[in-house]
Amino acid sequence: MAEATVSELNKLIGGIVALLGIKITDEDVAAHEDTVITVIGWIKRRYATWTLDEIRLAYELAVDRKLDVEPFRAIDPNYFSDVMAAFGRFRANDDALQRVYRNQLLISDRPEPTPEQINAFMESELQNAINQVWAGEEYPDLGNGLYDWLDKKGRIPFTPAQKWAYVEQAEPLVRAKIAAEVATAPDQWSQRNLKALLNASIQNNTDLASRVRSYAKYLALNDYLKTL
User: Fold this and answer.
1) CA-derived radius of gyration, the chain
2) Closest by alpha carbon to 1, among 52, 57, 58, 64?
3) In this predicted model, which residue has the larger pLDDT, 111 or 81?
4) Which candidate, 227, 60, 219, places its Cα nearest to that of 69?
5) How far apart are CA 92 and CA 28, in angstroms?
6) Integer angstrom CA distances of residue 93 from 14, 87, 115, 194
7) Using CA atoms, how far apart are residues 108 and 51, in angstroms rounded to an integer?
8) How does pLDDT run across 78-110, given as a tens digit for each residue?
9) N or C: at which end does the chain have fewer Cβ atoms within 10 angstroms?
10) CB of 217 within 8 A of CB of 144?
11) Among candidates 209, 206, 184, 210, which has minimal Cα distance to 195?
12) Do 195 and 143 belong to one domain?
């Protein structure tokens, strides 16, 4: 990625925009171009070790509903990070995709971690999270990586009813966050998308449901960490 040209990165973003079905009106072109510049800078800083093929595949899997993240119709650093985090979890647990990497159909200089290494890393991250919470801070758990790992291991102690209670707690908080985003949206295009999301129903809008589920996991994890 570090060697990718601006033209290649623009083509990558253009492909993602088309894949997500984002429509750019004439009045949104200037704002969209500014957003693309921001996202390209973000990718080059934070994802320099990833390949263009990996990023394309991540978004293709997201649109195919194979990742634990909804294909939200927006291009921004936060959602980009959510997609890449979900892709990392998927890649670590999908045997077929691991075979693709072993056969070097997707070339990466980074060695793939073993399950033992992943578990050791997550145990270390769990201890970091516990320390952070007991220091009076909130653990952000970007992409819900720690929560999902603990839940997969059967270490999240909440019942389905308790998990749903966190969803109900999260929804008004997420709506308040979206309302704040509307007020500070950098352009009309972003503002219209956020207003549509704010007025949607969690039962009928996968983007809103994904945000609420993610925040519910964040709330549940931080409560759980306080018991450890």
Assistant:
1) 19
2) 52
3) 81
4) 60
5) 38
6) 29, 10, 9, 33
7) 7
8) 778 888 888 877 777 655 555 554 444 444 445
9) C
10) yes
11) 184
12) yes
The Cα 109–Cα 49 span in angstroms is 8
Per the structure, how many domains does the chain have? 2
Same domain, 180 and 214: yes
Is a pLDDT exceeding 80 seen at residue 227? yes
101 and 121 share a domain? Answer: no
Looking at the fold, whether 101 and 209 belong to one and the same domain comes out as no
pLDDT for 105 equals 43
> Which pLDDT value is given to residue 102?
47
The pLDDT value recorded for residue 182 is 78
55 and 12 in contact (C-beta within 8 Å)? yes
Q: For 114-165, how does the pLDDT look when each residue is reduced to its tens digit (9 = 90+)?
A: 778 778 888 988 998 999 899 998 887 766 778 888 998 999 999 999 999 9
What range does the domain containing 40 cover? 1-112
Last residue of a domain, one of 112, 147, 165: 112
Query: Tokens standing for 145?
Result: 């990586």
Say if CB 63 and CB 20 are below 8 A apart.
Answer: yes
Whole-angstrom distance, CA of residue 109 vs CA of residue 214: 31
Which comes out higher in pLDDT, residue 125 or 171? Answer: 171
- Which of 81, 112, 143 is the last residue before a domain boundary? 112
